[in-house]
Amino acid sequence: MNLHLENKLFLVGGATSGFGRAITEQLIEEKARVIAIARTKEKLEVLQKNSDAIEIVVGDLSEESTLQKILDVIGERILTGAVINSGGPPAMPVLDTTLSDWDAAYKSVVRWKIALTQALFPKMMEQQYGRLLYVESVSVKQPVENLVLSNAMRLAIVGYVKTLSQEIAQSGVTLNILGPGYHATQRMEDLFQKNSEIKGVAVEEIRATFEKQAKVGRLGTPQDFASLALWLLSPHSGYITGQTISVDGGLVKGVMG
After folding, report:
1. Out of 121, 147, 186, 254, which residue is the most buried by the measure of CB atoms under 10 Å away?
2. pTM (2 d.p.)
3. Are strands 81-84 and 54-58 parallel, antiparallel or unpaired?
4. Is pLDDT above 90 for 33?
5. What DSSP string describes 25-73?
6. What CA–CA distance (Å, rounded) separates 53 from 7?
7. Integer Cα distance of 254 and 203 in angstroms
């Protein structure tokens, strides 16, 4: 299938690792152009060496200064789509959280995504086309143990995206969420380690337990995830908006999963 992404400009957050890197690499394979965002300049420069179709923005997406950098780089160009993606809050059970943890989680998971969205979608509405794709977590469908900050805060994005998608549904701009299950990323390794510490069980045993929860019997790969992301970023997905789609190997048991 031709995704018709050639020479189209996309914004990708968290572009140097995990899902963000896989999406960036697949966009480049489709001959798109990418503005790649991450906190570490050296990692971005390594990514950029692989393609002259990649521009970079160094910054923390939760900081307002990074938003201005992004808008400056886009300038007056037509932005076809954006992958709104970044790392999540630390793993911990409810009883270990403080109000400061909740304040930090709001900043790292919710606030910047709303700010970026509200900066991007008006121009997309003017051009009558745009694809906004949010990378959240399977925890919005089925809570993940010892991940309460993510479980709760990501649901706020689901409510925001669903509401906005209905308000601007006739504009040609779509907004969708992908909820990754258990994939082989550094984020999952951190979660395995935290669960190992809490339960006093070896990391390898924790990893095996997570693998068994996915009905396909394995962790996903970032490339598995990116293949669906690219379709949602393409013109083919124009009749899909306001949806939260799990990419989870059969993890979620609910019929609406």
Report:
1. 147
2. 0.93
3. unpaired
4. yes
5. HHHHHTT-EEEEEES-HHHHHHHHHT-TTEEEEES-TTSHHHHHHHHHH
6. 9
7. 28
